What we know:
Keywords: Lyase. This is Amino acid deaminase. It contains 11 helices and 19 strands. The chain starts with 6 loop residues before the first helix and ends with a strand. It has 2 domains: about 15-50 and about 305-415, D-serine dehydratase-like domain (Lyase, Ornithine Decarboxylase, Chain A, domain 1, Beta Barrel); about 55-280, Alanine racemase (TIM Barrel), CATH 3.20.20. The strands form 2 sheets. Strands 1, 2, 11, 12, 13, 14, 15, 16, 17, 18 and 19 form an 11-stranded mixed β-sheet that branches. Strands 3-10-9-8-7-6-5-4 form an 8-stranded parallel β-sheet. Helix 7 (about 185-195) runs parallel beside helix 8 (about 220-240) and helix 8 crosses helix 9 (about 255-265). It has helices at about 5-15, 50-70, 85-90, 100-110, 125-135, 150-160, 185-195, 220-240, 255-265, 285-290, 390-395, and strands spanning about 40, 45-50, 70-75, 95-100, 115-120, 140-145, 165-170, 200-205, 245-250, 270-275, 310-320, 320-325, 340-345, 350-355, 355-360, 365-370, 380-385, 400-405, 410-415.
Amino acid sequence: MPEHVPPAVERTVGRTVQLHDKSFPAELVGAPITALEALLSTFSTPLLVLDESAIAHNLRVMERWTRDRGLELMPHGKTTMAPALWARQLAAGCTGITVATGWQADIALRAGVATVQLANTCTDPALLRRLAAHLAAHPEQVLVCWVDSLATVELLERELPAGSSLGVLVELGADGARTGARDEATAREIGERVAASTVLHLVGAAGYEGALAHDRSPASLTAVSAYCERLAALAETLRPLIAGTPWVSAGGSAYFDLVAAAFAPLVGIRRILRSGAYIVHDSGFYRGISPLDTARGVAEEEALLPGMRAHARVVSLPEPGLALLDAGKRDVPYDEGLPIPLGVATVLGGPERPLDGEITALNDQHAFLHFTGATELVIGDVVTLGLSHPCTAFDKWRLIPVVDPATGTVREAVETFF
Length: 418
């Protein structure tokens, strides 16, 4: 390791399993999280696990997909907030990491990420000064943030110290959507103001198309495509104001194919996607909407695979056809769909038998599993759950085991920074 190790990396490098790490076996306490050797069956439930082979597959798929289209990928690190997974993404060809808050940007910079895109505006004076101090001490690193108003530009100029040179992407929004300048004239005015700043420098244009739709209906695809074309045109409009190669950035994890199509005609501009959920995909929302899923007719070797799942134990069978599991809102995501029962085993990590059922509700620490057909459950059985929406899965776990599905062995755990 280098003489100076950024705090986030240092914490992971020296991190050992602790007794308070949720669902980890006591015999692993004190073991380095990068050098574990344990069977999944020794862990407790509820448990979130990452699939080593699926993650490796997804990294290869997305690297090939973006490279074939001449795109860069700066995946959204907020999905996992796991520097160990960011390192895998960077090693697979990603050119930077995107974050959503000033605090997350600080974590990414201190983790040694060379290029950090803050897909938001930081208006917190203390955080701005903290970020500026780090960048002054580490000129080899780059931070680029978004702005969507002249008032934001004025705040940044007021709070950033003299000598700063913060990169800026002008954010284009849309009526009824999230942040972003609502029209091109305003965006152009912001760009001109940034270009004239002494502490900011204009980098290009950015936006988030995912706020415009939530499915793949014709109306949704039309709205997203039209917005992406507007964003591409804005990047061309701002080009004369930019010293160096301009950026244009869009692409959540649902419509990156439409972003790629809209950006394809751009020449001499860095076309940057920010899709982040691809590293673990899911079994719910993204499974149903991603352009790289077998549900879209994509061959399995070219499709993203679910790389996260949960395991929960049957703790009660209070009435026929109803089982209560020991995983709830504190353990699994539920904002983009409830967990999906995939199978049931007698022991964690053991051979699974089919399960005909549905999770109908979650409490803080319980899941309601209604089951039918020939399904037979007993107290203590372990149900495997497919999950929907990685962003709200990772934030519930400080330490997540990575399992080799072929052997059921855990040799590594990923630490998150939420």
